[in-house]
Amino acid sequence: MEARAQLKYARISPRKVKIVCDLIRGKDAKMAEAVLMQTPKAASELMLKLLKSAVSNAENNHAMDPENLIVSETYADPGPIIKRVMPRAQGRAYRINKRTSHITIVVKERV
């Protein structure tokens, strides 16, 4: 049995989120929470909130023991890109891509 939590349209690049995803993948939930609290990355706050949500989903919806949970999967997929324009010299315009992410955390009970 597994429980998941998703955050869609997060205004952070998936490239930045994947660094934090790699830190907690495969760890137990308490250890992952401790790692996220001490990681000085912008994505760690989003991931911490999402991890707590996934653990709560497991406990309340699937009657799992929160002490035996491990982070089985975590990934960040690209969402839609918000396109903006930056004025440049001689009347030109450069495009600025503001990237978004869909972040997913899946927890399951330790076997």
Automatic annotation (TrEMBL):
Q: Which Gene3D superfamilies match?
A: Ribosomal protein L22/L17
**What are the alphabetically sorted keywords of the record?**
Ribonucleoprotein, Ribosomal protein, RNA-binding, rRNA-binding
Q: Which InterPro entries match?
A: Ribosomal_uL22, Ribosomal_uL22_bac/chlpt-type, Ribosomal_uL22_bac/org-type, Ribosomal_uL22_CS, Ribosomal_uL22_sf
A GO term (biological process) for this protein? Answer: translation
Q: Which CDD domains match?
A: Ribosomal_L22
Q: Is-annotated flag, keyword Ribonucleoprotein? A: yes
What GO molecular function annotation could you give as one example from this UniProt entry? structural constituent of ribosome
Q: State the GO CC annotations.
A: cytosolic large ribosomal subunit
Signal peptide limits: none
Task: Name the family the entry cites.
Answer: Belongs to the universal ribosomal protein uL22 family.
Summarizing the function annotation, the protein's role is:
This protein binds specifically to 23S rRNA; its binding is stimulated by other ribosomal proteins, e.g., L4, L17, and L20. It is important during the early stages of 50S assembly. It makes multiple contacts with different domains of the 23S rRNA in the assembled 50S subunit and ribosome.
Under the subunit heading, UniProt states: Part of the 50S ribosomal subunit.
Q: What is this protein called?
A: Large ribosomal subunit protein uL22
Q: Which organism is it from?
A: Papillibacter cinnamivorans DSM 12816
Lineage summary: Bacteria, Bacillati, Bacillota, Clostridia, Eubacteriales
